[in-house]
Protein 1
Amino acid sequence: MASHKLNRTTFGDPNNAGNLMSLEEAHSLLNEWVPNERLRLHMKQVAANMKAWAIEKEGADEQTALKWELAGLLHDADWEKYPDDHCRIIIEELERRNIDPDVIRCIASHGPNYFGVEPVSKMDKMIYAIDELSGFIHAAALIRPTRYDGLEPKSVLKRLKTPSFAAQVNREEINDAVSRIDDVSLEGLIQFIIDHQKDIA
Ligand SMILES: [Fe+2]
C-alpha cells in the first residue's frame, strides 16, 4: 500500500462526544460500501476483539464498548471502493454523520505508518495491534484442516518467524504495535484474538 498520509491531527468535533451509530447502521454501511465478504469478515473480527478487550480488560461500560466495536467494524470500510483514499473517506463520512471523535481518531490511527496519525488512547493502540494480528491469525487458521480448533499461539508465533507466510503482513509493525501496549505480551494478545474471533462468521 502506498502512503496515505492524512496530514491531520484533529478528528471529528468534540461537541459530538457520545454520538454513536447503532450496530444496525454500521452493518448497513458495510453492506453498502464493502461487497467483499472476506473484508467484511475481517472488520467483524476486529470489532469482536475490540469490544471484548474493552469489556474484559478495560472494564468498559456499554457505551464505551460500543465505541470500540464501531471503530473495529468501520476501520476499513472505504478500503475496497476507495483504495487510493483509504481512511480519508470513512473519516469524512463519520465526521459528516457527527460521530464521536474518539471513534474517528481511533480509525485514523489504525495504521500510523500509512496515515501518519500516532495512536494515543488505549483504544487507538489496540486497534493498531489487533488489526495487524487479526488478519494474520485468520490466515494461519485457514490453512489448518481444523481451522481455529486447536490453534495455539506458539504456532502463530512460528508463522510470524516465517517471512514467506502471509508475506504482505509487516512483522515490524506487529512488534511496534504490541510494544506500545503495556499490559499484554505478543503471545497473550494472539491468544486473546484466537479466543474472540474464532466464532465470528
Ligand atoms: Fe484492517
Protein 2
Amino acid sequence: MRFRQALPSLAVALVASAALGPPVAAAPGEGGGAVASAPGEHAGGGGAAYGQPAPQPKPRRRPARRATTSGEHRFPIAGAFDWGGADSRFGAKRRGHRHQGQDLAAASGTPVVAPYGGVVTAVQYQARAAGHYVVIRGEDYDYVFMHLRSRSIVVREGERVRTGQRIAEVGSTGESSGPHLHFEVWVGGWYSGGNPIDPLPLLESWASPA
Ligand SMILES: [Zn+2]
C-alpha cells in the first residue's frame, strides 16, 4: 500500500545526502581486491549506462525457470513505504555521480526482506555513506540494502537466505537524515564486474502482484 504523506522528511533527507562529500575509501567485504571505490551511494558509476534504458538482465548463475514475476519475488520492504519523487530514482543526480539505486521511504524499524533466495556476501558498516548495509548474491541478481537500522541486521556473511526472509530493518544510518531503504540491483556481480540497473521496474512488479 502506498503511503503518500506519511514521511515528510524524505525530501529533506535526500537533499541533505546529496550535499555531502565523497565516500570513505573502504573496500567492500567481498570485493575481490579490485575495488577502488566505496560501495556507498557516493561511489563511482561502475559502468552503468545512466540515463539510458537498463540492459536486459541476464541471470548469472541459474537460468530462471520463469520470468522474474511478482509470484517469485518479495518486495524488499515488508510494510508501508513511499516511492518518493524524482530524486529517489536510479540515475538521479548526486554530487559527483549518479544515484545507483532506488530510495524507498519507510518508517524506521520496518522489516527489510530478501527479494529472492541467495547468499549474503557482505554485512558491513560505512559511517559516511552506506551506513549499515547488506549485500545478497541472489540467484538472479545481486541485491544491496543500505542505511539499515543499527543492530537490526539478523544475517551474517556466508549465510544462505530464502525468498522473503527478514534480513534487517529500515533505518537512517550513514549519509541519510531520514529513514529509508536505498536499494540496488546489480547484474553481473556487485563491484566484481557487474553494473547496477534501474530497480524500479522490478520493484513495481513485486509490489503489484498480478
Ligand atoms: Zn539512495
Protein 3
Amino acid sequence: MKILIADDHALFRDSLRSLLEAHGIEVVGEAKNGREAVELARRLNIPVATDLRGLIEDPRLDLVIDDRLTAVRGRRPEIEYDLVTVNDLSAGLAQRPDAVIVATGATQRLPDIPGVKLPHVSTTVDMLMGRTAPGRRVVIVDEEGYFAAPTTADFLAERGAQVTIVCRYFMVGEDIDEGTRSDLYARLFSRGVTLQPMTRAIEILPHCVRTRHTFSNAEGVVEADSVVIAFGGKADDALLRELEGKVAELKVIGDAYSPRRVHDAILDGTRVARAL
Ligand SMILES: Cc1cc2nc3c(=O)[nH]c(=O)nc-3n(C[C@H](O)[C@H](O)[C@H](O)COP(=O)(O)OP(=O)(O)OC[C@H]3O[C@@H](n4cnc5c(N)ncnc54)[C@H](O)[C@@H]3O)c2cc1C
C-alpha cells in the first residue's frame, strides 16, 4: 500500500511516517495542507478516491472547509463563517461580527535561568518548527512535565542528536498517563536519550548546562551544543486586548485564555460555540 500524508504539523507527519514505515507501508509523499495534497496526488498519479471535502468535513462540527482550505461554509444557513487571516483583521471587523472568539494560543515561556538568552538556546516549538537547527549534543530543560520535552527529544534523537532531558520532577513526563509514558520511554531509550530527573538547570553556558540535584544539591555539568527550553506557555492575549471594546461579544478560548491541553481548548470552544 502507498500512502500520502497530509497534515499541517511536521511532527505529526513525521511520527505517522515512522509508524507506517515500521509496518512496511510506503509513504510516497507529504503535504502541509489540502491544496498541496491534491496537487501532489495528481503529480504522483495517485487516484484520490474520496473528494477531499469528505475528509475535512466533520459531522460533529457544523462546518465544511473547502478543498483549498480557503473558505468555510456552515450547514446552518443562519450562521455565517468567514476565514480572516492575521493581515486582514480590519477587514474582518468591517463585517461587524456579532461575536469574536479569540483562539490565539500561547507563546513559549522562558525561565529566569542565567544564560537563557544565549544564541544556542531555543524552545521546543522553535526546534519542532525547524526555526532552530540542533547541535550534536542537545540538553532539553523540562519544567512542563508533559509531552513537549519527550516528543522534542524523540524528534531530535531520530535525527542523530545526542539528547539529555533535565527535569526537576520525580520523572520525565510525570503528567503523562502510565501506558503512554511506557511507550514513549521505550522510544526514547531505544534512541539513546538520557533522562535526568530530580535535577534543576541552574546556569546555561556556551557549551554546557550546570545542574543541581533537587534533593542532594549536588552540582553537575551536562555538555551541550544546543539547549531547548520546555517551560510551557503563557497566554497570547495580544489580539484579545486589541479587540476589547471593538466588538459586541468577545470570547477567548484555549491556551489564549490559559495554556493547558488540546482537549481543554476543544472543550472551551464547544462551550463558547454552544452558548452563542
Ligand atoms: C511541543 C508541544 C507539545 C504538546 N503536546 C500536547 C499533547 O501531546 N497533548 C495535549 O493535549 N496538548 C499538547 N500540547 C498543548 C496543546 O498543543 C495546546 O494546549 C493546544 O494546541 C491549544 O490549542 P489552541 O487552539 O488554544 O492554540 P494553538 O493550537 O496554539 O493555536 C493558536 C493558533 O492561533 C494562531 N494565531 C496566533 N495569533 C494570531 C493572530 N493574531 N491572528 C490569527 N491567528 C493567530 C497561531 O498561529 C496558532 O495557529 C503541546 C504543546 C506543545 C508546545
Protein 4
Amino acid sequence: METKSFQDLIKEVHDKGICQECGGCVSFCSSAEYNIIGIKDQYSPPEYINKDKCLECGICYYICPQTHILDDELNKTYKFSDYISMPLGNYDNIYSCQATDKELLEYGTDGGVVNSIINFLIENKDIDGAVVSKTDAPFSREATFADSKYDLLKASGVKLDITPQLDEIQKFCTYTHSIPKLNHYKFKKLAVVGTPCQLYTIACMKDLGVTPSQNVNICLGLFCYENFFFEKSQIEKFEKDFNIRFSDLSRINIKEDVIFTLKDQGTGEKTIHIPFNHLEGYMRVACNACADFTNIYSDISFGGLGSPEKYTTVIPRTEKGKTVFKRALDAGVIRKIDISDDKKQQMVNLITQFSKSKVNRKEQFMKNLS
Ligand SMILES: Cc1cc2nc3c(=O)[nH]c(=O)nc-3n(C[C@H](O)[C@H](O)[C@H](O)COP(=O)(O)OP(=O)(O)OC[C@H]3O[C@@H](n4cnc5c(N)ncnc54)[C@H](O)[C@@H]3O)c2cc1C
Ligand code: SF4
Ligand code: SF4
Ligand code: SF4
C-alpha cells in the first residue's frame, strides 16, 4: 500500500477546507526536531517548513481527525460502535457535578469540575500539570501549561495578571492549539483538556504508541458543538447584529445555545442567549466536518448541556476515567447531585439530540463538498 504523507493531508484535508487545525500533525510529526511542518498562522492549517526533510512516514496522515484511518482501532479501545446506536459514546453513567472549592466553582465555566479534577491530580502527584487553555479576551484563547490552582484560575480568565488590551487583538477564536504544547512538556506526566478533534489525535498516537503520547496520563474531553472565529469585519457585524460590544463581554458559556454574559455596568451582570443557528456565519468552517459532540475518545467528558446552572455534566468513560472521577468524589473535591431516572433520561435525550444534529450537519456538509 502506498504510504501517505503530509502532502496528502494538504490535498485531501486542507484543500477541501476541512482541516480542524488541531495541530496533531505538527505535534506528532516523526521528525518534529527538523521543523518539517509548522503552524505559521494560528488561524490557518499547518504548512511545510522544511519539506525536503519529510520522511514520508505517514504518521501525520494516520492521526489526522479528518482521515479516520484509525477509527476501527480506536472504536475497539473505547468500546464505541456508531453514533446511531451510541450517540453519547460508551459510558455507564452520567452525572451533574460541581466543584466544592469556592474559587474553582466561581470561576469555572460551568461547575468548575474539570479544573477541580486537574487540581486534585496535581496535589496528589498523579500528574505534573495539565495543558489547558487561557482566556486573554472574549473569543480569544491560547494553550498554556498549568501546574497549580493559581495557574488554573488564571487560565479561566480571572484577572490575576495583566492581560493584553482588547484592541490589540485583530482576530478572535474560541479554538486553541493545545496539542502542539505537548512537545514542550514531553518529560512530564500530563493531563490534557481538549475538544474532540484534539483528543482524537492523542488517542491515535496512544494507539500507535508514538512519543510523546505516553506522557499523557489522562484526557479530559469537552463537549463541542462548534468553535467560533472572528475577523475584524465579523466583529463589527456581530456587534451590529446582536447589539453587543465585544469589549462588554465578560464570559461565554455553551449549553443549548451560546450564552454571552455582559460585564456589570452598575446594574448587575446581564446574559444574552443566542441560538447556534444565528451564529452560523461566525463558526469555523471545518467544524461542519466534525461529527463528535461528546468527546467519545476521552477518559472523561464534560459539558454544560443537560445540567443546571453552575453544574457540569460528567461522563466517565474509560477505566482510568471512572477511577479518577470516583477518587475526586470520594476526596470531596467535587460533589454530585442525585438525579432521578426520569431526569437522567431527559439529560441523555437532550445530549443525544445535539449529538445527532452534529452528525447530520457533517453528513450534509460532506455531501455538498463532494
Ligand atoms: C470551544 C468549546 C466549545 C464547547 N461547546 C460546548 C457545547 O456545545 N455544549 C456543552 O455542553 N459544552 C460545551 N463546551 C464545554 C463547556 O463550555 C465547559 O468547558 C465544560 O462544561 C466544563 O466546565 P467546567 O466548569 O467543569 O470546567 P472548568 O473547571 O471551568 O475547566 C475548563 C477547562 O477547559 C479548558 N479550556 C477552555 N477552553 C478550551 C479550549 N478551547 N480548548 C482546550 N481547553 C479549553 C480551560 O483551560 C479549563 O482547564 C465547550 C467548550 C469549549 C472550550
Ligand atoms: S515526517 Fe512523517 S509525520 Fe512528519 S510531515 Fe513527513 S510524513 Fe508527516
Ligand atoms: S492533524 Fe489536525 S491540523 Fe493536521 S491536517 Fe489534520 S486536522 Fe489539520
Ligand atoms: S466542532 Fe469542536 S471538535 Fe469539532 S472540529 Fe470544531 S473545534 Fe474541533
